[in-house]
TrEMBL record:
Sites where the protein binds NADP(+): 46, 147
Protein's name according to its UniProt entry: Glucose-6-phosphate 1-dehydrogenase
Ranges for domain Glucose-6-phosphate dehydrogenase NAD-binding: 9-186
Enzyme Commission identifier(s): 1.1.1.49
Family: Belongs to the glucose-6-phosphate dehydrogenase family.
Originating gene: zwf
Pfam family, one: G6PD_C
Length: 487
């Protein structure tokens, strides 16, 4: 069913995120009948564009990012009709706010308004202040903040404080698009609907856990942002810690947003701090060099940044996290993410303990549960079975129990933004990050950044198209553990 009608006001409306993710996501929801025909999408940015010019750009973006088979001409033109454009500098009080107000005032003030800030986080506070001074924050207004919220705990607090002066916490939607991924949400279903897993979901049965988000792309055109951020802030502080929370949390008492977020917060609070002096033991960081990805030669990170640039920014991180709780005592959670790696693959690997004793001539391999976030969303459990080759003894061989969701349910898997953008309209914050979660995550990340800034762990080069530097392998080898590709 369609959601209640709305105005979506996007700051950063000509930017990459809007063109690549937000408009295509809204298009798909519109096509499937969930966006009402009188909803409006109002893009704002500094460029002086007419509505028609903006619509033409948007149409081109849809063509670039959506397969032709899903673009039906009539649907596209009806969708494009929902788009408006206001040339506005959201950070300036003197800008063309009157134009935005006139447009918004055409509809009753009871209409849901979503202010989506797809801009630099440094502007969030000013934009919210201007919205509020201009009288544009109605009872039905919500604000969406893209990550990263700040670059450390202090700056995150400053941003949250300044946004919080104009919007109540339950109207602030901090987006982490990993939570919109189907298989990430499926972690909740898998764990809390299947006793067969949840009964084993403790240190009694689990040896270690790995969470990987590997990409084959490099820094692309985002060097200016990325070089100030680096992989720890860009991926680990948010996406990977969120996935860790869903893997590690205790059962929430209900699917109410705060019940789930309370449990996630407990995990973040239970993370054993990694002191600056310990980063060499618990973390590995790397930067990609020239190499080969999918059969093509690609340049190094420094080459991607531009000529004559030097940088100590990490494009790869692996780390060992520990959760101080009864459930997880002695179970390491290895997290890693990187650009220009061997494959694009995001997954969770639950490595179970081996059988305590064997009656077979070869040792059964320990069971492994793989939750594949992307691509090819699925769940796979490795089991030892009888080797069917006729021999004189009963020997074992590993095989997989494998569900591939797209095949199992025969549907297109929606992009994560599709669900999240309409959840904001519905006012459902379950898949958004509460302020205290952001703070707890930064509190854990900050000392690692401090240790690195003192050079306590070397920045190791790795060739593009590999699984990262040697240090990442050593991190697990110390405990006799292996990354998935080495198993
Ligand atoms: C973003 C990061 O949050 O996530 C990017 O800023 C990264 O650097 C992207 O490429 C990865 O998302 P996905 O959905 O492709 O795994």
């Amino acid at each position: 069913p369609p959601v209640d009608t709305f105005d979506y006001i996007v700051f950063g409306g000509t930017g990459d995120l809007t063109m690549r993710k937000l408009l295509p996501a809204l298009y798909y929801r519109f096509r499937d009948g969930q966006v009402p025909a009188d909803a409006r999408i109002i893009a704002t940015a500094r460029s002086p564009l007419s509505r028609e010019e903006y619509q033409a750009r948007a149409q081109q973006a849809l063509q670039e990012h959506i397969p032709a088979a899903s673009l039906e001409a009539d649907t596209v033109s009806r969708f494009i009709n929902l788009l408006y454009y206001v040339s506005l500098n959201g950070a300036e009080a003197q800008s063309h706010w009157a134009d935005l107000r006139t447009l918004l005032d055409r509809e009753p003030a009871t209409r849901i308004r979503v202010y989506y800030l797809a801009t630099s986080p440094a502007l969030y506070g000013q934009i919210c202040e201007n919205l509020s001074k201009q009288g544009l924050v109605t009872k039905q207004s919500r604000v969406v903040l893209e990550k990263p919220i700040g670059t450390d705990l202090e700056s995150a607090n400053a941003i949250n404080d300044s946004v919080g002066r104009h919007f109540p916490e339950n109207h602030i939607f901090r987006i982490d698009h990993y939570l919109g991924k189907e298989t990430v949400q499926n972690l909740i279903a898998l764990r809390f609907a299947n006793p067969v897993f949840e009964r084993l979901w403790t240190s009694d049965a689990i040896d270690y856990v790995q969470i990987t988000a590997a990409e084959t792309v490099g820094v692309e055109g985002r060097g200016a942002y990325y070089d100030k951020s680096g992989c720890l802030r860009d991926m680990i502080q948010n996406h990977l810690l969120q996935v860790l929370c869903l893997v590690a949390m205790d059962p929430p008492v209900s699917l109410d947003a705060d019940s789930v977020r309370n449990e996630k917060l407990k995990v973040l609070h239970a993370l054993k701090p990694i002191k600056p002096s310990e980063v060499a033991i618990y973390t590995s960081r790397g930067q990609y060099m020239r190499g080969h990805v999918n059969g093509q030669t690609v340049g190094s990170y420094l080459e991607d940044l531009g000529e004559g640039v030097t940088s100590e920014t990490e494009t790869f991180v692996a780390l060992k996290a520990e959760i101080l709780s009864w459930r997880w005592g002695n179970v390491p959670f290895y997290l890693r993410s990187g650009k220009r790696m061997a494959e694009k693959c995001s997954e969770v690997v639950i490595q179970f303990k081996s059988a305590p004793w064997t009656i077979f001539s070869n040792r059964p391999a320990a069971n492994r549960l793989i939750i594949r976030i992307q691509p090819d969303e699925g769940v796979m459990l490795s089991v030892s079975t009888k080797d069917p080759t006729p021999t004189d003894s009963l020997t074992l061989r590993e095989a997989d129990i494998n569900i591939e969701f797209e095949k199992a349910f025969n549907i297109r898997y929606p992009d994560s933004y599709e669900r999240l953008l309409l959840d904001v309209v519905r006012g459902d914050p379950i898949l958004f990050i509460r302020r205290d979660e952001v703070e707890a995550a930064w509190k854990w990340i900050d000392p690692i950044l401090q240790g690195w800034s003192k050079n306590e762990a070397p920045l190791e080069p790795y060739p593009a198209g590999t699984w990262g530097p040697e240090g990442a392998r050593n991190l697990l080898a110390q405990s006799g553990h292996l990354w998935h590709e080495d198993m």
